[in-house]
Amino acid sequence: MEHSMIHGGVIRRLWPADLPAFREHLLRLDTQSRFDRFAMAVNDAFLIRYAERCFGIDDVIYGYYVDGTMRGAGELRAVGNNIIGGSVEAAFSVELAWRRRGVGTELMDRIVRAARNRRADGLYMSCLARNVAMQALARKFEADLLFETDDLTGRFVARGPSAASFWGEFADNATSFATAMLDLQTRVFSLQPRA
């Protein structure tokens, strides 16, 4: 479940109220991490605009939080017009200090489950040829997925959904939403003037 501790942090589904935390996470990425994530050099203005477009109805994003600060994210979005039954794209970003701790694997697990539950016919992942960490992450899921590569894009073909995968995502989403609302309430309350 999403509230299992992973090196002092938790992974949960993100909701529109999490936009500021997601944006700040992207802005903290170093130059190389930004290039690895977007396959091009990007500036702060690009990241701000990108984050603002990431909470559409078909977007599924999971965040890795440590002490209330997002340090990693896994994103799933439709390649075409519909996330159900079509092709989807996955993307990951983990800040340097939190890499090599299993965070990417946990994020990938949730993204694969979300793609499976949406009956995706293909899950695509851009991966630069020199991004050895992302290639290793993809190999961890070969038992569940078929990975085809042309050194730039990997394509997974996910198994169909099961009752357990549906239930697992439903339970994660319910607790994630409750946690996000409590986080939002805490942020709003902290901005109120004290009497």
The counted number of beta strands is 7
Helix content range: 40-55%
Ends distance: 40 Å
> If strands are numbered along the chain, what order do they take across the biggest sheet?
1-2-3-4-5-7-6
Report the β-strand fraction as a percent range.
Answer: 15-25%
Q: What is the count of helical runs?
A: 6
What Rg do the Cα atoms give? Answer: 16 Å
What are the low-pLDDT stretches, counting only 5+ consecutive residues below 50?
none
Question: Can you characterise this structure?
Answer:
- The chain is α+β, with helices and mostly antiparallel strands and 195 residues long.
- The chain has six helices and seven strands, in the order E-H-H-H-E-E-E-H-E-H-E-E-H.
- A seven-stranded mixed beta sheet has the order 1-2-3-4-5-7-6, sandwiched between helices.
- Strand 2 (60-66) and strand 3 form a beta hairpin.
- Helix 1 (19-28) runs antiparallel to helix 3.
- The longest helix is centred in the C-terminal third of the chain and has 29 residues, at 163-191.
- The model has no long low-confidence stretch (mean pLDDT 79).
Task: Sum this structure up briefly.
The protein is α+β, with helices and mostly antiparallel strands and 195 residues long. The chain contains six helices and seven strands. Helices cover 41% and strands 21% of the residues.
SSE layout and pairing:
Layout: E1 9-13, H1 19-28, H2 31-38, H3 44-52, E2 60-66, E3 69-78, E4 87-94, H4 103-117, E5 122-126, H5 132-140, E6 148-149, E7 153-156, H6 163-191
Parallel strand pairs: 4-5
Antiparallel strand pairs: 1-2, 2-3, 3-4, 5-7, 6-7
